[in-house]
Design a protein that fits this description.
A: 375 residues; alpha+beta; Butyryl-Coa Dehydrogenase, subunit A, domain 1; Butyryl-CoA Dehydrogenase, subunit A, domain 3; 3 domains; 11 helices; 10 strands; B: 395 residues; Butyryl-CoA Dehydrogenase, subunit A, domain 2; 4-stranded mixed sheet; 4-stranded antiparallel sheet
Chain lengths: 375, 395
């Protein structure tokens, strides 16, 4: 048994950590999220130059051959700066799907530009009526000659406004909530019939609604076998949860450190408020929630490559843990900072908002409790 | 023991209900606090004033209604049920009782009418950067020079100061051994040179609170309420009033109704979320906790109508009331699923400028974020627990 990181993994962590420290302080982030585009293309290019966009891909495709642990390390460190650039949708979700399931040809067509930072990707998987059920899909894909024609609406596509390419889940056959009959398609966002409604998100990101109206794609747009896309999507979301858990852990670490520091210096009734036992115990609880979340994050990222049943259980278990812990740590960090925790000016509220949205992303606590029980 | 309202109370309820339904401004129905202009805030206040109902809690001689405790409760309940914008708390709820209890005749004559009519907007100059829950550590200083106080200091979390004409303000006039001594209660015109209001934007994107900087602000000595250096008694009296309305039972009931509507529209595997075992159980738990709070409030009310003032038990109402409000906003955000994510600016949502997801989902996350303040303000819930520990349990 060994929970230590390799030398390469430690170097990777140090590199991302100092990059975030040097280039992504709170003021910089606020400027970025308030800019018209809401992300920094310059930062994205630097990610490419540092090799972060290449991390999970095989060496023959120009990647660095990293696995879930490398992604975990990167996500945790990016989280500490509340980085909004679309590492999750582009590299973890879409990159992961292409890496594991796309044909050699598709990989050669798409991955080099992704790795070079020249194309941004988003995963358009949820639908307005679908809540957290990945198979609840009305969007249709009808075979048309060698290709397909897509029609439907995809909801709350995170990172969508920045994306050049989308991976869209659509139904080639079966009933509205059947897992059979779901397919994944690579769709150019500039293709005829694709329209989007872009908006900011409450946690500083950008997302969009995507409408597909008679969007024609070729046979080369289909990932894997027709009608067999659900398993690919389900797995991609579990990989997403592994990365998201690491992100949550990064936020919790920042909040706990900030809260302890604040309580040591903030004085009321003539003493530091950190001397009150009731607040000490609260901070101890926050610390324990963080530690439990770290454990579940390690666990899920070690199990992503195991059997499907084991992977599902691990992912849902981790998602429940970070959902609950993130909520507690976020709420208490705001509470212990008092009015200051409520302000836009202090970073605490921003970590809190992101942690809140992490519970919703990829399905909330209730959803994953049920999935865990069924797995 | 019984919880029935008397027949005359039922008739009164009917009267209040139809008055609200007939007279509430149509353009304000369903508007959130964040969307309101200064005039929006005052519109219903002015209508209530014309009717003579704007300050039910005041003694009749100063413009109150002479209602029984039960009638006041019914009025609040009906107002909340309809979702009216309540009269501004700073004048009617906070300063008014201070003035008719501690003010001199001249102060009563010029302060009270402006509060009742809504012509004077008051804000509360209590908290300071170093004095939050520990209010007595405040540092804003007032020095008497001739017939004027010269005030210097820094107030924070001043709600809606951007609209205010006047501020009631706690200042330190003497530095004594005991921190509670030497505090005075001053009325300050916001237009006095040296008053500067700076907005604080909160995590929901709203502008409700402010910082107020006071630099060599000259205040006529006649604006002192009560005795110099004895303001702490007034400050505590006001905080006691602030706590009494904070349970918010009727408004929470309305918020649960709205939550239920949202959960009826949201689907999980094709079924309304409201019908799922998990979600309906969570709403049930909330309703049970709210029922307990309602009966706790009614018990307080019953002992009040027998002449006992609200004691430190009112801290229970504050703690439980705000915890329930926070849980409702949290569950409402949870109900809308993925549509908790879009940030739809309030003003634009009102104009349907940007319609993302179901209408009901608009602003639910902002409301959740905003409501985290309720366990912090008005004496944090930690402070409220200290009060119960000390005053009720004798620890």
């Amino acid at each position: 048994m060994d929970f230590s990181f390799t030398e390469e993994q430690t170097l990777l962590r140090n590199m991302v950590q100092s990059f975030v420290q040097d280039n992504y302080d709170f003021d910089t982030r606020m400027k970025i999220i308030r800019s018209e585009e809401g992300m920094s293309r310059e930062i994205w290019q630097q990610f490419a130059e540092l090799g972060l966009l290449a991390a999970p891909f095989s060496e023959e495709l120009g990647g660095l051959d990293g696995g879930p642990i490398e992604t975990m390390v990167i996500m945790e460190e990016l989280a500490r700066g509340l980085v909004v650039e679309p590492y999750m949708p582009t590299v973890v979700l879409c990159g992961g799907i292409l890496n594991r399931h796309a044909s050699k040809e598709q990989q050669e067509t798409h991955l080099p530009s992704l790795i070079a930072g020249e194309s941004i990707w988003a995963l358009a998987y949820s639908e307005p009526q679908g809540r957290f059920n990945l198979a609840d899909i009305v969007t249709s894909a009808k075979a048309d000659g060698a290709g397909f024609v897509l029609n439907g609406t995809k909801a709350v596509v995170q990172g969508g406004p920045w994306a050049d390419k989308l991976i869209v889940s659509a139904r080639v056959s079966g009933g509205q909530r059947d897992q059979d009959g779901v397919s994944l398609f690579i769709v150019d966002k500039s293709a005829a019939g694709v329209s989007t409604q872009d908006y900011p998100t409450v946690d500083g990101g950008r997302a969009c609604e995507v409408t597909l109206e008679n969007v024609a794609v070729g046979a080369d747009a289909l990932i894997g076998e027709a009608g067999k896309g659900f398993a690919i999507l389900d797995e991609a979301i579990d990989y997403g949860i592994g990365a998201l858990s690491a992100e949550a852990v990064g936020h919790m670490k920042q909040l706990n450190d900030a809260t302890v520091e604040y309580c040591k210096t903030r004085k009321q009734f003539g003493v530091a408020i950190g001397s009150f036992q009731v607040l000490q115990h609260r901070m101890v609880d926050m610390f324990m929630e963080y530690e439990q979340s770290v454990s579940m994050t390690y666990m899920v990222n070690m199990k992503l490559t195991e059997s499907e049943a084991e992977r599902k259980k691990a992912a849902s278990g981790a998602k429940v843990q970070i959902g609950k812990s993130g909520r507690f740590v976020g709420q208490q960090a705001v509470q212990l900072h008092g009015g200051m925790g409520m302000t836009e000016e202090l970073n605490v509220g921003h970590y809190f908002k992101r942690l809140t949205m992490i519970d919703t992303q990829f399905g909330n606590v209730d959803h994953h409790l049920k999935r865990f029980a069924a797995a | 023991m019984d919880v029935e309202f008397a027949p005359e109370d039922a008739a009164f309820r009917e009267e209040v209900r139809s008055f609200i339904e007939e007279n509430y401004p149509k353009h304000l129905i369903g508007k959130d606090r964040g969307d309101l202009s200064k005039e929006d805030f005052l519109a219903w206040h002015r209508i209530l004033h014309t009717k003579g109902w704007v300050a039910p809690s005041w003694p009749e001689e100063f413009g109150g209604t002479n209602w029984t405790v039960t009638q006041k409760y019914i009025f609040n309940e009906e107002s909340a049920r309809f979702g009216t914008i309540p009269p501004l708390p700073f004048g009617v709820g906070m300063l008014g009782p201070v003035i008719y209890t501690f003010g001199n005749q001249e102060q009563k004559d010029w302060v009270l009418p402006g509060i009742l009519s809504g012509d004077t907007w008051w804000c509360q100059g209590y908290s300071e950067p170093g004095a939050g829950s520990d209010l007595a550590s405040l540092k804003t200083k007032a020095v008497l020079e001739g017939d004027e106080y010269v005030v210097n200091g820094h107030k924070i979390w001043t709600t809606l100061a951007q609209h205010a004409d006047w501020m009631f303000c706690l200042v330190r006039t003497t530095s004594g051994d005991k921190r509670q001594d030497g505090i005075s209660f001053l009325l300050i015109d916001m237009n006095t040179p040296g008053m500067e209001v700076r907005p604080i934007i909160t995590i929901d994107g709203g502008h409700e609170v402010n910082e107020v900087f006071l630099t060599d602000v000259r205040v006529p000595a006649k604006n002192l309420v009560g005795e110099q250096d004895k303001g702490w008694t007034i400050a505590k009296f006001l905080l006691g009033n602030e706590r009494s309305g904070i349970a918010g039972v009727a408004r929470s009931k309305k918020a649960i109704d709205r939550l239920r509507d949202i959960a009826r529209g949201e689907l999980e595997d094709g079924e309304p979320l409201l019908n799922t075992a998990d979600f309906s159980k969570k709403i049930a738990e909330l309703e049970i906790d709210l029922t307990a709070l309602e009966y706790t409030e009614l018990r307080t009310l019953a002992s009040e109508s027998r002449g006992k003032g609200p004691g430190p038990e009112s801290s229970i109402l504050k703690i439980k009331g705000t915890e329930i409000q926070q849980r409702i906003t949290e569950l409402t955000m949870e109900a809308v699923g993925n549509y908790a994510s879009p940030w739809v600016p309030a003003a634009e949502a009102g104009d349907n400028y940007l319609t993302i997801g179901p209408d009901a989902s608009h602003g639910v996350s902002q409301t959740y974020f905003n409501n985290r303040k309720t366990s912090i303000y008005g004496g944090s819930n930690e402070i409220q627990r200290n009060i119960i520990a000390k005053m009720v349990l004798g620890l």
